[in-house]
Each structure stands twice: as structure tokens, then as C-alpha cells.
Amino acid sequence: MIGRTRRHNEGMAAPTSALGSPKVRWDLTSLYSGVDDPQIEATWKRANMLADNLAARFRGKINSPSLTAELLLEAIQDIEQISVESSKPPTFANLLFAVQSDDQKLAAFMGAQMEQYSALRVKLMFFELELQDLDEAVLSPVMADERLTNYRHYVSVVRSMRDHKLTEKEEILLEEVANVSGRAWVRLFEEVTANHSYEYKNPVTGETEELTEPEVLNLLRDANRDVRQNAGHAFSEGLEKLERVIAFSYNTILTEKKIEDRLRSFPHAESSRHLANELDKETVDLVTGLCRANYDLVARYYRVKREILGLPELTHIDRYAPLNEAEAEVSWEEAKEIVLSSFRAFSGEMADRAEEFFDKDWIDAEARPGKGGGAFCSYITPDLHPVIMLSYLNKMDQVGTLAHELGHGVHASFSRQQTYVNFHGTLPLAELASIFGEMLVFERLMEQATEQDRLALLAEKIEGTFASVFRQVAMYTFEQRAHQARREQGELSPDEFGAIWQEELQAMFGDSVTMGEEHRRWWSYVGHFFFAPFYVYAYAFGELLTMSIYQMAKREGPAFADKYVTLLKRGGSLSPRELMATIGVDLQSREFWQGGIDAIESLITQFESTWSKVK
Predict the structure, then answer these.
(1) What pTM does this model have?
(2) What's the CA gap between 163 and 88, in Å, rounded?
(3) Low-confidence ranges of the chain (pLDDT < 50)
(4) pLDDT number for residue 14
């Protein structure tokens, strides 16, 4: 997805609300007035003209012993201008479709924009390929020129693909068929899951109701166990109806990646993700291995939750069961005040950036038919403002979701001072600001809460952290095994995918929660497996990173805020390791990552202590 940071946590959207969803919709006119805006076609004409001019002026001159700093600088800046222009129509289409996924005309419009985007990308491919082929002896003195200081990281990232590039003809072929191969299967998955209904039998009325995916998942947070049981059953039965289409789509995506990885000489299925994230395998293995080694923290928490709920056994339907019979509703205006005041207590500049989203209609928060599930922030481009999508239905856990997305939004807003190639950070660091925002809100709510409310807040925070850390690592391991099995055994059946899923998720919970048989189908709704292979470990990386940094912020006090804001303003101008080094963090330090695990354990200890006081 162009310019989007998406959140996908199980059961995180809200159930129905007495207050009703706020009538808050975003204003996208900074992009275009609508699908028939003549500026869309004008954008494509302008971008293609610039691309044709760039090819005429620079083809054959980048991979050349006579390359100069001035010429390379001019070429990169032209690339940036074209990228800014060409990303706007497909971004606009994606944003429209995200809130109206049942509109086939919008789906066709989105497909048309992606096709034009691909056609333009083909015209620019020569530049990166020539830059990758360029002799280091020629490039090194060119890059030493201070005029290229802002682009050293970009050039380094482009050059990192040197050993994995194909010929220009092959690269063009892959791009031209992408919209009818991998992207097409992703679109099929998203359309069938977004528009599928689930037959839920209401245990109170006895009536059968047709629910969307977010609605049925939200019932897994209901206090009534019969409601949760029926919701889990409805979800599993609904997924069973889709499993042949989803399993075939996933098998095809796995096969396509297998072929491309072979062509590009990637040693492992996840290698390309590590390269895109600018992380080495050793650092990723350190973080994911540390998470797996601490799965016992999950079991420790759920044993206490089982005692609180008074159940002899917890199953997959009980993971998000509330500790209180009813949860007080939080209106949109209250949520706004909570988030902004929490941000302002840390940094006035951060709060001012967040407030713009409310004042200038940069948020779409209304829950309505056809709107996709989950939540995301779209950065768009440096010359335009970012926007946020969520469906707000007045629940306390959604205040955290709002803070999460506004964290992304603030990061995007600060990053606008960067040029296009330095605008976006890598995925693991993309979660830094969002999770930090959640932590600010959580700390404020905890300060004001009664012991009983603190217990519920801690439960929500711990379960959200488990979903972002341990569950994401379990899903990452599922992906590793699924890709490997597809490469070694051939096409996998839904049952075979389900068996891998069940083993990995059960390992996370140990003996504290039993993953029932119906749960084995639940791998098939996780969109990240389809549209962004191995994306999921970025959540674990980001959560542990932020929890450790948050402890630094508390130790250092107010002085840390300026350091943090400066970090966000750097966008993606440095590698993750270089960015973190600016605030004294070593990403290869096991001790640093252990600090994040220790912070999770501290939350569990607080939960246990609070329960001992209120029980």
C-alpha cells in the first residue's frame, strides 16, 4: 500500500455503542475533489512527461565513469518530483476504497490508478539499475560531495539491492504483470473478506444475524461467554466457506515469492523483508528469539485472568474477555481531550501537530457499511498532510487506537520537512511513534484510575502488548514455516496451513489457554500474510523498542522530549541503527531489548499486585 502504515490486531475494533459512532469523515480534497477530477489525468500527464524527459536526459549517464555529483543530484531530485506526483492518484484511490470497499466502481478506479502507476515506474527503472551497476570507485568520490549529503542514505539503500537485481527487461516484466499476478490475488483476498458476512446466532434473542468481520470479532470482547462462543463459531464457519479461495490465493502468493526470491538470489523467504527494513538477520533473530524465550510471561498473565473470570479453562474465545461486566463509554470529544492532553504533557509541539488532525478534518472515524476494518495512517507525500482512518465506537481500548494512529500521524507530519526519498522510515521504526503515543495515554489513564479500573486498564494494555509482541512473533514463525513448506512440499491444503497456525499460536499460550479446533482456520483472515509477507515482526520490534525507549524517557525527564521530536523529524533519512544511535540506543544490544521484555513483565507484576488488592 502506498504511503500507509496499517494496524491489524485481532479483535481490536469496537462493538456497537449507545452513543453512536461520531460523524467524523476525512476531507481528501487536498488530493482531488473526486474520481472524476480532471486533475487526476493532468497529474498522470505531467508525471509521464517528467519521466520521459528524465529517461532522455539521464539514461546511460548514471552508470558512467564521467558521472558527476551535479548530474546525480539533478537526477535524484527529478526522481523525487516524479514520485511525489505519481503517488497521489493511487493513494487517493486506496483511501476512497478503504472506506467504501463494497463499491465496485471504486475498485475499478483503484485498479486503473495502479496500472498507470506501474506503467510510470517502468520508465524510471533504468535509474536505480544503473546506480546499482555503477563501480564503487566512481561512486565514492561523487557521494563525498556535500551537495549529496541528504541523499547518502537513499543511495545506500538503492545499492543494497545490487546483488538481487534483475536485468531491466526482467524488472519491467515483473512490474507489468504485478497487477494481474500478486497484487490481483491480494485484491481478491481483500474483497472477499471485506464483503463476506458471518451468520451469528444471538444467544439472548435466539435470532440469527448477518455480521461483518469487524462486528463478529468484536463480540469476542463481550462479557457474556455465550456471546463469545457463538461469535467464535460464526467466525470459524464463515472462514470455512472462504477457505478454498483464500488457501489457493495464499498458495499462489507463496509460489510467486518463491520464484522471485530464486530469481533475485535471496537465501530465505524473509530475507527481502529484512533488506527492506534495513535490518540484519542477526538483529531480527535476536528480537524474535528473545520473544519466544519469554512466552511464559503470556501464560503467567492468563493464569491470573482465568482466576479472575472464574473459569476452569480459557480457550481462544476468552483471550479478550473483559474483566468488568460493562465498560464506560468514551465519547469522541472525551477521547480527543485524553489524547491531546496526554501528548501535551510530554511535548507541546507533538500535541499541536496532533490537534491539526481534528481541526482540519484529517481523520475518518465514522463506522459505516463498506468501511474496511482495522486502522491506519497514510503519509501521502511531503507536500501534503497525512490522514488517519479508524472506526470509533466509544470504547476505552479505542482511545488507545486513536493515540496509536495519531502517533503515526505526528511522525508523518514531522517527517514532512524531509524530501521524498527520506520521508518514510522503515517498518520497524514506523511503529515507534504510534506505540509511544499509546504509552502516553495509558500512563495518564492509570494515574487517574481507581484500583478496579487500573486492573481493567492493565489487562487491556497487557493483552494489546501480547498481541503486538508475542502474537506477531508467533505469526512470523507461522509465515516462515508456511513459506518453507510451500517450497519443499508443494501446494498446502487449508488443514495443513491450519496445523502450522495452531502449533505456533498454542506455543505462545502454553497451558494457560487452549486453542480450540475452530481456531485453526483463523490464520486465513490475517491480511498481512497476503499483502506484506513478514511485515508482522515489525510490530514486535516496534513495541519492544518503544517500551525500552519509554523507560529512558521517564528516567531522563522533560529533556527527552526534544530529543524524541528531533528523532521523528529525521524521518527515514538514516538507517534504523543510525537513527537509534542518535538517542544512544544500540539495536544489536541484547540488554536493550531485554529492557522491553522487563517492561512487559513489570506490567504483569502490577496486574498481579492490583488483583491481590481488589479480589
Answers:
(1) 0.86
(2) 31
(3) 1-15
(4) 41
Contact yes or no for 405/349 (Cβ under 8 A): no
Query: To 10 degrees, what angle do helices 537-556 and 470-489 make?
Result: 160
Q: Work out whether the CA dihedral 407, 404, 443, 508 comes out positive or negative.
A: negative
Q: Is residue 581 within 8 Å of residue 566, measured between CB atoms?
A: no
d(C-alpha 291, C-alpha 306), whole Å: 23
Q: Beta-carbon neighbour count of residue 73 at 10 Å?
A: 16
- List of E strands, 93-195: none
Q: Give the three-state DSSP class for 378.
A: strand
Closest C-alpha among 533, 494, 529, 527 to residue 191 = 527
Cβ(203)–Cβ(234) under 8 Å?
no
Cell of 569: 523529524
Q: Write out the E strands in 448-547.
A: none
Burial class (CB in 10 A: 0-12, 13-18, 19+), 410: buried
Closest CA to 396 of 455, 331, 443, 343: 331
Give the per-residue pLDDT at 128. Answer: 96
Give me the DSSP letters along 105-117: HHHHHHHHHHHHH
pLDDT for the residue numbered 5: 47
Beta bridge partners of 210: 199
Dist CA 150 CA 80 (whole Å): 13
Residue 87 and residue 3 in contact, taking contact as beta carbons nearer than 8 Å: yes
Q: Note the pLDDT of residue 4.
A: 45
**Given this model, what pLDDT does residue 17 score?**
55
Q: What is the dihedral of CA 303, 308, 314, 318, to 10 degrees?
A: -120
Q: Which helix (H) or strand (E) holds 358?
A: helix 348-359
* DSSP-based three-state secondary structure for 387: strand
* Sequence-distant (≥ 6) Cβ neighbours of residue 41 within 8 angstroms: none
